[in-house]
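User: Here's a protein and a ligand (P-hydroxybenzoic acid). What would the complex look like?
Assistant: Let me lay out the input and then the predicted complex.
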Amino acid sequence: MKVSNAILGAAIGALLAGSAMADTIKVGIIGPFSGPFALQGKNFQAGVEAYMALNGKSVKGHDIEVIYRDLPAANPAQSRALAQELVVKEKVQYLGGVYFTPDAMAITPLLKQANTPLVIFNAATSAIMTQSPLVVRTSFTTAQTTSPLGKIATERGVKKVISAVSDYGPGVDAEAAFKKAFEAAGGQVVEAIRMPLNTTDFSPIMQRVRDSGAEAVFAFLPSGPTTLGFVKAYNETGLKQAGIKFFAPGDLTQESDLPALGDGAVGLLTTFHYAVSHDSPENKKFVEAATKAVGGADQLSFPSVGAYDGMHVIYKMIEATDGKQDAQKAVDAVKGLAWTSPRGPVSIDAETRHITENIYLREVVKGPDGKTTNKEIQTFPNQKDPGLATQ
Ligand code: PHB
């Protein structure tokens, strides 16, 4: 009798331990899932779903539940409200996503009290990382993607450039990083245009580019209808035909825009951390899973890889804390974490918590099937974010 009681006690104990382990960890993802930037948000979702399809939906016995919240445009007040609702009402242990810089800036003051890490899948202004020790970023910064372009431009015989950027964080960072790198390589930025974020008519900008006498234009705008409009204007107002060259980070030739840009995009040179065409076994697996999740080959773009790697970081945080809510411990656990991403080798810089990654020079080329792609033609390995130093 005594023995069977002991056995029963042990069995109940094991059951309780088992049920305590089968908890659910909630992850709140904020992104543009409707409106003009919906395809960018859809790519967040595709990256998350691809990661979970390939790596399972639980970590160390903790089930993972993802809760999405729609933030269609840059709107700091709404961003803060959504983050608060996710933390307080939904009791998420992790926040992720965030497409636009002002939305990320609005969330960082909440993290400490909420005891919640934020893993940024896109927002690309360098200074975001200085706002809270609980932020980790798996995307890129515009300073990081842009810096190699200074030398690339002078190597192609360009001495005078006009820059045109969206007038907010990532644009200002891109303008500064390009100027620094280009002038260090012997070039000169003859004029710097800052465009309001809501600019849709780019023909006056193209006129200023033409009038400036520059040999090339350097540009940054946030990917979406904005970039499509800008590159179309460059093609259609005759700048390209006039021999004015074009240099930009890859936001301006995202793969999902290439069909709409058609042959006009062929030859465009951009620098970026990820091309859908990246040739590696990890990317092949990723593209297959993410294409299924996004619902079409022409829809896949870079926010999907930021999200995929962001989920990798969140899974590692859950593993390190064994499901307990301890934001600082979770963040500390991924400092220095290194892995092979679909984009190539990456690691989380222990000091800045921003991703170190290869930046690739790519050229838009047309394949035998008539499809245009970003083809990687040069690699700048293991680039950290130089952004805070350029300010
Ligand atoms: C940003 O707001 O930080 C941002 C958005 C879209 C991009 C790059 C940066 O393509």
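Summary: The chain has a mean pLDDT of 94.
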